[in-house]
Design a protein that fits this description.
binds manganese (II) ion, 206 residues, alpha/beta
Length: 206
């Protein structure tokens, strides 16, 4: 509901935004709260329950599902054709966001929680693309990228890498590119832009 329509006229939208937010919140077991006062303004609050252990378990299950040691049978076999993306990201909410964007798309997803794990999974699974968060515990994304670039296996060393970064300071671009990333995208991640970059950079499976 818009008390003053002037903004609404200038920037006409579909009016779906809030409905989508509410639906999305509900799907995550949460809710949207509204406080509104004419002449003062409106405050929308989103509450989403978060259980780290549940998210971690699901990631482990996903890792197992994507592992080539566990040969999928039936319909999943076709998914072997999909490019494999390794997402190295320590923030569970960002993992959920990317996973949500890629769900039902022609990608397979592996998740690492830090740079060290990213290297292990990259060596083991030889992903077609890595989405590399820069700020991570144990080993940051830039250090992991440098190590990957020096890996003796050329398949591993040349894995396309898109850095995900909250840092947007002057000189970062040069620093990331010098560190060996192919491209980067700043947070909060624009999921549409991310998928465009992913399609451009992902190694073609033959
Ligand atoms: Mn991080």
């Amino acid at each position: 509901m818009q008390i003053d329509n002037s903004l609404g006229r200038q920037y006409a939208g579909t009016g779906l935004g809030l409905a989508l937010v509410q639906k999305s919140a509900q799907m995550h077991g949460g809710k949207v709260l509204v406080q509104s006062e004419p002449g003062v303004g409106s405050r929308f609050t989103i509450e989403i329950p978060w259980r780290q252990d549940a998210i971690a378990k699901r990631d482990i299950a996903l890792l197992a599902a994507a592992s080539p040691e566990q040969k999928p049978d039936g319909g999943e076999a076709a998914n072997e054709e999909y490019p494999l993306v390794l997402l190295a990201e320590d923030n569970p909410q960002n993992v959920m966001l990317v996973r949500g964007a890629l769900r039902h798309k022609a990608w397979r997803l592996l998740v690492a929680e830090n740079g060290m794990q990213a290297i292990e999974l990259a060596v083991q699974h030889k992903p077609d693309l890595i989405l590399m968060d820069i700020q991570m515990p144990v080993m940051d994304g830039l250090a992991a990228t440098r190590q990957l670039r020096q890996h003796p296996d050329p398949i591993v060393a040349t894995t396309p890498i898109i850095a995900l970064t909250a840092l947007a300071m002057h000189g970062d671009r040069e620093r990331f590119l010098a560190g060996g990333v192919d491209d980067f995208i700043s947070k909060p991640v624009d999921l549409g832009l991310l998928q465009e970059k992913m399609k451009l950079l992902a190694r073609k499976r033959t």
